[in-house]
Amino acid sequence: MDLDVFVAAHRAEWDRLDALLRRRRSLTGAEADELVALYQRTATHLSLIRSSAPDPQLTGRLSQLVARARSAVTGTRRASWRDATRFFTHSFPAAVYRSRHWWVPTALLSTLVAVLLGWWIGVTPEVQSSIAAPDELRELTRPGGQYETYYSSHPAASFAAQVWTNNAQAAALCLVLGVFLGLPVLWILFQNMLNLGIGFGLMSSAGRLDTFLGLVLPHGLLELTAVFVAAGTGLRLGWTVIDPGPRTRRTALAEEGRAAVGMAIGIAAVLFVSGAIEGFVTPSGLPTWARITIGVAAELAFLTYVYVVGGRAARAGETGDVEEAERGATLPTAA
């Protein structure tokens, strides 16, 4: 496309749209209809320029013009409780459901890695001695040792807040850094599984694996699932960079990126629940079976939420992206 010819052919329409927007409060009915038509044409022009002959200065000008026109045509939109309700009943569960082919294998493979690391550490004294001195290991794993007192070392509320903050940051990093071909996500996952494997191996070598599982499972099931969802979504975003499918790479990254940012909010809410369990249930005086039951119930509730609520929303066409009116103008692509 010859950009100079294109600009010369349509400059008058853009200038006319700008003039109408400057006095939009006093438009006649015919002029209002003209504004809508010019907005639609300018949005198409912007898409053509972005895809065929991207020019930063012209793209910036038309983007501002289209944004002003969209505001004039649709009105200023404010977030409401309806938006929050729709997010948690449609957008978020649908996004998690759609990415299940990424986070479910991620969860299975990561758990396998953690178990193998734990087994290797548990049966290899040389590896244990490289982690800490024998006296330090006994202090970690003994009854009433550091592994047990860790969960009650701080007031429950502050401990829950600290855990939630740390886990939310890890999940956000998985979502954001996924765009770098998913490589940072793999490293974050490995670090988490290594920490889990170390605890698993050291406690099993001390004959206290049941105690370790009783401390980890109440909150760990939901917490790790949230991390796996974030990691799987980050890996999916990284794969989009490599293979955007029938969409342009820009469009694919925009769509998947917006969905990932939305998922960060939902995952933070899930991690808030797991953090509350870790702060108040894990160190409580409840029997082990009761604490694990609470953790299993929370995990089953989340999976039901994703596969029932999210599956229904996804089949109805929900993708987790923002509503169509809030997206940039794009051209259709062939399947």
Name some characteristics of this structure.
mainly alpha
Structure write-up:
The chain has helices spanning 3-22, 29-52, 56-74, 81-98, 100-123, 125-131, 134-141, 146-149, 156-177, 183-205, 209-242, 249-281, 288-315. With 335 residues, it is an all-alpha fold. The chain is elongated. The relative contact order is 0.12.
Largest sheet report: none
What fraction, in percent, of the residue positions are helical? over 70%
Instruction: Give the integer mean of the pLDDT values.
Output: 85
Report the sheet-strand fraction.
Answer: under 5%
Number of strands: 0
Q: What is the string of SSEs from the N terminus onward?
A: HHHHHHHHHHHHH
N- to C-terminal distance: 24 Å
Helical stretch tally: 13
Over the alpha carbons, how many angstroms does the gyration radius reach? 26 Å
Low-confidence stretches: 324-335
**Which of globular, elongated, flat, extended, rod-shaped describes the shape?**
elongated
The assigned structural class equals: mainly alpha
